[in-house]
Batch of 3 targets.
Target 1
Amino acid sequence: MHSPEKAFKDLFDQEYNNLCRYALSYMQDSHLAEDVVQETFVKFWEQKKELVGTPNAKFYLVTAVRNNCISAIRKQQSSGLKFTAETPEPDPEPYITTRQAQEDAKTQSKKIADALDQLPPKCKEVFLLVKLHGMSYKQAADALDLSVKTIENQMGKAIKTLRDYVSAGVTALFALLFLNYTLFK
């Protein structure tokens, strides 16, 4: 049997990146998205420690991240602050290969984000829960308080929209990678 600390660390290691990507779909700023996810994990540990190691932990975190993103957006809007553009790039790195790899990853991430931006907000949220977080349609329906049929319809709509986007001019390699990731994961 794992200690609660070990179970929490395993949960954090397993879900942190996925939750950051999910939060980014709301926040549109990677630093703010990471802040929301980190704060969510801290509150989870402080207030819901008994859920660590249970199947409900993942669903709780997804819902908490969603709610915390919405709260953060409302707070920023009410304070008059605007989301900032990406922070300026740091000084050039000494190894061009590292820099090139980062630029390639950034370009690919942008293409994926652009494809996902083609989806309506609720459709995008459903797609991310099912494909990024690996939830079943039933689990996503429970997390979003929707019917399974609605989740099925939203997923069908998402896949059709993404296929149309891919066939409308994204490179063949990206299309292959993207469709394999989204449809066969």
Target 2
Amino acid sequence: MKPSQVSSALKHLVAKQRPVFVWGPPGAGKSDVVRQVANDLEMNLRDVRLSLLDPIDLKGFPVVDKENDQMAWVPANFLPPMMVKGKNGKMVPNEEHGILFLDEMNSAPQAVQAAAYQLILNRCIGDYVLPKNIAMIAAGNRSGDRAVTHQMPSPLANRFVHIDYDVHMDDWYNWATENNISPMVRAFIRFRPNLLHSFDPKENPRAFPSPRSWTFVNDIVGSNLDSAVEMELIKGTVGEGPMTEYIAFANIAKDLPTVDQILMAPEKTEVPSSPAAKYALCTALDKKATKDNLERVLKYVGRMETEYQVLFLRSVLLNDRALSQTKAFTEWAAKNQAVLM
């Protein structure tokens, strides 16, 4: 299920108060989707990494209840864990809407997973009952991806709705455009979509490309580092093969026409012949388009094949939906109705 579908499914299950487990490869963005769902629903998010807990952390810590100054045997009371407390240290109030996110759940030892039975099925921990407005989402990596995982006991697995999370090129590109990932990184992934997420568990590489690691690359390429240092850091983030392809792609882009050249002479500025260069140019132009210059930019992009025009306009509208109301866009749409249908 692609990320946008996972998001829709989570919103439905949160509304139904149905516990859900999201399975996916490492670095794919599972946690980001959960955080975005909480943000869209305007709900507080409590992120708990079960792999870092002991069973007593989940169940609570026993303390002796002294009714008076005389020591006598009394039943132990259990203090609720911090995960059911708000930021002010008090219990989560019954009127608060929130999501309890149990991340890396199947990386936790089975004793910790067993301690979660009562929480997930009965919505309580000892005597403490979770408020009705708190939904539960869990996530974890797949055992086939050589991640640190423990088999989930069947009674616990049966308490969840299970969702398989798949990396999806268009969903990532939309996210990257909206979150200011550099045009060069976006263009490269468009050109080489297979490198958005590439991991062979048989080889178990130290560094491999994933949505998470390309975000790290974005931070590297925007830091004005020495070229040799930049190459080594990119290699250490996504691996040597993807680094080599990215650097070659970036070198091609350096010799392309500038945005200013295109805006000054959209009908005369040279259009590159290689697909890599066209991807780079369309992506470089998408954030430069405005209602005042869209007509000129489209004159230039319109000299490319239709697939590049569509790529450019999709990215443009992600940045500013109002551009769909401009004369330049409506004229292009009228000429390309078959593409839009």
Target 3
Amino acid sequence: MKSFPKILVQRLVAGAQMPRYAHVGLYGDLAADLFAAEAATLAPIGEPGATVMVRTGLAMELPSTHGALVEDRSGLAVRGITTLAGVIDPGYRGELKIVLTNLTPTAQVIAPGHRIAQLRIVERIEAIFEETDTIAETERGEGGFGSTGR
């Protein structure tokens, strides 16, 4: 039987909504919805205010074994609103604020209660980084951006 990490959530703002999955079970969602606890207006791209921090009104206590990633909501992304700075370390205990950027030429309004991002819980793995003079060759090699075609 699979165990699920318990994440304690503190409401810092009256009316702040708890993260929640729209679909649960065998084919449930990979990430939980996060909601705005305040209104915000994102100015058009290129203007001051095109990138803003939006409060969720929540603080979380992640276990030491897990962290979280803040991801775009597809419905906002298709409208030109994207998230930035989305790594939440297990030791962070401050308010979760979502950095939103407007990539459109028109202002975008966020209202309290709007779903503004998704929270993906991830298992924390601490790697050991070791310096070397060479690394093994692969078929892909140095092929990066766009190397697999369009």
